[in-house]
């Protein structure tokens, strides 16, 4: 049982009864985008977030996807990363490697993780440089209308406060428009030092998915999806691809406060 509807500039909203159903549909969506990108461009450039998202895409490691997805064409990036050692418990790289990357045949040279031996500012600069090199060779596509990379898919989780990536409500990083990657040293959630894609890069993607589960996300989902023009936007509400598609994946609890939400019994 699932619901799906278009919501104007807020993209497509897909609501699932539970996490299991959401996970099944999310990995189908990712596999379909991978196939389409490989056919069109010969590669699939995907940017991951951390948190519960990695667990929700775990089915990609199982049949049939472990055989049908062309893993050698995947290039993996991080939408944001904590500036900690790669083997640190807070590392998004560590989370993704243990829960996903180590279980599928993605080439290690196709995985772009941060330099964990430098400062947050240095890590942001290094990550920008790495992406620029791959834009030059068109491993990562380029936006037609701006000087931004155009990832085939940006996968975002959403916090209960409406943050996406490491872009938090009312934080100056939300207004960064010149850099592809910015850094913060005062994250309201530990650890404090992080690097993150900026909104222009997220909004230049060919496809963006925002995934949220659980009742703690319901209020933020309502504000981000249903909010009126006079309401201060949450970071998730500022995600609006300029020339791409946006799909929300919500379970019934996260969707429970949406204006258009009613699961029929």
Automatic annotation (TrEMBL):
KW Hydrolase (keyword) present: yes
Keyword Chaperone: no
The organism's place on the tree of life at top rank: Eukaryota
GO biological process: carbohydrate metabolic process; pentose-phosphate shunt
Pathway named in the protein's UniProt entry: Carbohydrate degradation; pentose phosphate pathway; D-ribulose 5-phosphate from D-glucose 6-phosphate (oxidative stage): step 2/3
EC number: 3.1.1.31
Matches recorded under Pfam families: Glucosamine_iso (PF01182)
Gene3D superfamilies, A to Z: 3.40.50.1360
Principal EC category: hydrolase
GO cellular component: cytoplasm
Ranges of residues in domain Glucosamine/galactosamine-6-phosphate isomerase: 17-248
InterPro entries: 6-phosphogluconolactonase_DevB, 6PGL, Glc/Gal-6P_isomerase, NagB/RpiA_transferase-like
A Gene Ontology molecular function term of the record: 6-phosphogluconolactonase activity
Catalyzed reactions per annotation: 6-phospho-D-glucono-1,5-lactone + H2O = 6-phospho-D-gluconate + H(+)
Keyword terms of this UniProt record: Hydrolase
UniProt similarity note: Belongs to the glucosamine/galactosamine-6-phosphate isomerase family. 6-phosphogluconolactonase subfamily.
UniProt name for this protein: Probable 6-phosphogluconolactonase
Lineage summary: Eukaryota, Viridiplantae, Streptophyta, Embryophyta, Tracheophyta
